[in-house]
Amino acid sequence: MAEAAAIQGTSPSPARRWLRRTGALLAGVPLLAGLLQLPAQPAAADSGRTAPRAAAATGSVSVSVDTLTPSIPGEGDTVTVSGTVTNKGKQAVTDAHVGLSVGPRLTTRSGIDTVARNSGDVRTPVGQEIGGKFTEKFDKLTPGVSRPFSISVPVDELDLGQDGVYQLSVQLTGQTAAQQWEQTLGVQRTFLPWQPDEAETRTKTTVLWPLISDVHVTAETGSNEQQTPVFRDEDLAKEIAPGGRLDRMVSLGKELDVTWVIDPDLLASVDAMTESYEVRGEGDENVTGRNQQLAKRWLAQLQQAVEDKEVVALPFGDPDLASLAHHGTSVAGSLNHLKEATDAAVETVRTILHMTPATDFAWPVSGAVDPSIIKVATSAGADKVIARSDSFRENGGLSYTPSAPRPIGGGTTAVVADARLSTAFQGDMAKASGSTLATQRFLAQSLMLGLQTNKQRSIVVAPQRTPSASQAQTMAEAVKALQNASWSDSQGLAAAAKAKPDPAAQPTVPSAGAYPASLRKQELRRSAFEQIARTQDKLDNFKVILSEADRVVTPFGRALNRAMSASWRGRPADAAIYRSGVETYLDGLIDSVKLIEKSETKLSGRSATIPVTVQNNLVQGVDHLVLRLTSTNPTRLKIDGGAYQEQPVTVSGGHSQSVKFTTSANANGRATVVAQLYTPDGRKYGEPVTFDVKVTEITATVMLVIGGGVLLLVLAGLRMYTQRKRAAAREAAEEEPGAGEESDDAQNPEAAGERPTEEPGSGSPEGASQQPSDPAADTAPESADPSGTGERVDR
Length: 795
Fold this sequence. Notes:
It holds the Pfam family DUF6049. By secondary structure, the chain is of the alpha/beta class. It is about 30% helix and about 25% strand. The protein starts with 13 loop residues before the first helix and ends in a 43-residue tail after the last helix. Strands 1-8-7-4-5 form a 5-stranded mixed beta sheet. Strands 9, 12, 15, 20 and 21 form a 5-stranded parallel beta sheet that branches.
């Protein structure tokens, strides 16, 4: 059967034809008898068939093509195909072998698509098998068991004719106990691009090599001089580590002639990792980052890789242009962020990579465009938009793929990447079989494109934004093979954009209704841009009071760029958490400068001073603040002679400052006052502080009463002084000689003279003489001696 099959394009010899006919005649006798007795028995294969009968659509045996070398064979080469076959059925397969078949030459790009979609369909004919020694046999395939195979065939045996793309099938044929005839039980189709001689017209091919990642850095920074950045996680360290996605992108791209398309946020994030940085922990505490050496190594490798290469810088953070066009333009200030992101891109790349990138290219997600996206994309200075042919469809009935550049008006050029080539590596490339099939399909499409016409054309390949490590490996293998092919030359993106446009190509931008619904569902909503605008408004109000505004403006400005990133597509919850985190952190900084709460203040007298304290818990000082104290009842209480007074405020970092206001009262009672901070442009800053002032006014009557009381106190003091002086004189007289004849004087009062009358309040009734039997006075006589030094005197 397969072993006896003739090589495609040759005729069997007479002896071989005689043997085949004799065998068919001998086999026909028992077959006829069997048909007469068992009408339900399947007929044997006809001798004229070029392939065994097919089983179910996918077959019971899986055929995997893991390698095909060389990818683009030339004259004198030997094609080697290796892989595995796996019995996925429930019955053992016997008398099995793996063989190769070369199908007819494909003539269209859509024909390649059809073969790729039905690559495992065993019912579709696979062409004539190359038999003989170019097969690998298996006596038995047990269910669930995989067996490797490797077949090498000289190119001369493949009977490849004129230049083009050929279908190469790897099939397993055998039989089972239930179906005891030879049949195709598994097949895998791939492609062989064949053009051994140099093409007369070579296709100019541009391959974009994207270096883009997710958002990793928060708006939070340390309070130290270096402003230590805080990362959301350590995922970026994993990507730049040896074997990681971004590590592979750099090491693979270094060997290729490609145009690097870089998000400056990635550069800034890795550069921040080269110094001290922190990572958010599970709780409130941050964890110290320890991947500085990884970051330095990756940046050094990237600097070498892009040296003397074309580099295109996207706006900082890779903002989602479609989301901005569809939902953000109606929110004031949204387009300003795109302009700021574009300006930041040049400085970031120049500082880190020591080169000036191109910034005149915009790249919407998946190259899908409509008029609003074009308008937004060019609003920040870009005059070239990278689109894709499945969005920018041809409707003029062209039989070939036109060149990439399309003038679309207003001095703008749409650089339309080829959709088939750009999406070739979006599948699962982790398995060798997926990688091999993708590479061969990519090369087949490129060759078929080149064979469409003799016109010189410029073709652009714009792959997915963030290819995995395995996808990057497959891309590199395919691009390297293409750059060695006889039909393609490498070209930069700038040169592709300047190429002569095809006048027959579609120049009209697709309508808004043509934008893919699947992409629209992933966009940032209007509420996202409203939150970004609210945060920006708070930042604008905050920065004007700072002595070192750049310490706040720069990290928050870049964080707001990241909040608009295309990397949030399909992750609305993560995007919302990030935006809220930025706003909450800013609110905390704003609240670090505030007024201290005051309790009720009592005011006695017509005028007094009221202090109000401003606290600054920031590291840096604040300036240009104005503190206004307002009386809600100026009739009762005036501030500096009016309803309010304003005073400038300057507070050093980590300090508080009291500001004093002069007040005057006109009436008793409570008056409410409000303290409020303002920015120089008259906008309120922070929350106001409201407190009551209790006014106790001193009237003329009260002053008379107080004056009378003071006078009485003075008179009382004089009286006390007189009494003390008299008492001291009596004591002195009693101590003189003769004072001891007290009994004679008592018996003869007249001899002693008249006794003085007691002053009222001396302890006995007025005018009464003190008798020996009278009780002692309640209070001892006051001493006239000076007060001791420790005696307290109430005044």
